[in-house]
Amino acid sequence: MPVPTTITSARHQDMDLVLTSGTWPDDLTGEFVLSSPRIEEGLPYALFGSGVLCRLSLTPGTHGAAEGRWAWRTRVLETPSERLMSAAPEQFAAGPTGYTSPFGPPNQANTAPLPWGDRLFATWDVGRPVEVHPLTLDFLGEVGHRDSWGTPTLDMGGVLPFYLSSAHPVVDPDRDCLWTVKLGLDFETGAQMLHVVQYPGDGTDVRCWPVTGGAVYGGSHTITQTENFLVLVDSGNF
Fold first, then answer.
1. Among candidates 118, 117, 116, which has minimal Cα distance to 129?
2. pTM to 2 decimals?
3. Residues 74-103 pLDDT 10s
4. Is 63 left (phi over 0), alpha (psi -120 to 50) or beta?
């Protein structure tokens, strides 16, 4: 399905949609979910805005929509970062690489929705994945306590840790876990050293392993898998 350009240029709001032509299939059900940044003042790029989930119900008359209408619902994710930004906006300064603050860099969780069975996550490549309630879109928690993630990519102080991660983690159906990455900065070479991160799906801990010789100079935007291997993809930006 093509994603409209307005997803990163228009203000988000709830709407009830109507069918203007054709016939809606009776057996088409479920939800269509996508991620988006909120439009923020002063940011050079939309991708640094706070995370929003947009959900289109494929069944008319649900989620508060009238009969014969389809519910388009949006929700800003109430992460710890978003709560701090709402409580103390004067502490967050917009710059060319997003926001900085005495609390640390915010986790915007605005890149991609990730379903895992009946669970739903939102992702970003500069922070931990975030779990939300699939129906209410309420924030449930960030994946893994910061202590189990280990040393941040860059220690910037504050309560919000800075982790370069993957915008596209992968759910492993055979091992029933989530795989993602963490990048650690090597100050001598300027390389970012790869670590594989595994979340078992419960509890507050993740497992983290360094990848021997795993140096990248851009990022690791995507992780995917085969039956026997994890495939870590360099972003190729540099």
1. 116
2. 0.91
3. 999 999 999 999 999 999 999 988 999 999
4. left
